Amino acid sequence: xxxxxxxxxxxxxxxxxxxxxVTGEFATRYETVLADLxxxxxxxxxxxxxxxxxxxxxxxRRLLLLDPERARTLSLRLGNEVHALPRLAREARKHxxxxxxxxxxQLGDALVTILxxxxxxIADPVVRDFACAAAAGLDAEIKARVTQGASLDSxxxxxxxxxxxxxxxxxxxxxxxxxx
Length: 180
Fold this sequence. Notes:
Number of strands: 0
Strand content: under 5%
Distance between the termini: 120 Å
Number of helices: 5
Radius of gyration: 32 Å
Shape: rod-shaped
Structural class: mainly alpha
């Protein structure tokens, strides 16, 4: 009876050691996937999912020491989630980049409209020529601001103010030129 119980306990210990070893290998793979995501900067694309899975993998590591069978159950559940995360993160990044591109395009279109409206409102061709020459540097500034992701409201207000200053200066320059 005693020997049988010892054999049972030894078999159970070996069983738990096998579970611990195999599940530990899976935990290492999960950690590698998460580390790869972080190194590629994809963790910021799905921050909630990344944080949740990181916590669950940490819990898996903790359970490996305390309860290997529960660790195995958790590992089985985490497997699909961890391996789906890179695809999800790439899709989220692609979507965010597409949205940012769309916003940049809309901002650029709106700012070009402001420029065109301002120049169409100038009736005097001499003033328009001086204003166009003075506003030549604005194109590069607009492109830089659009690339940086400036907000339409704040930058369009700044642009309108700058254009008003340019037009005022152009009117002064045109008057000076006409008198000369």
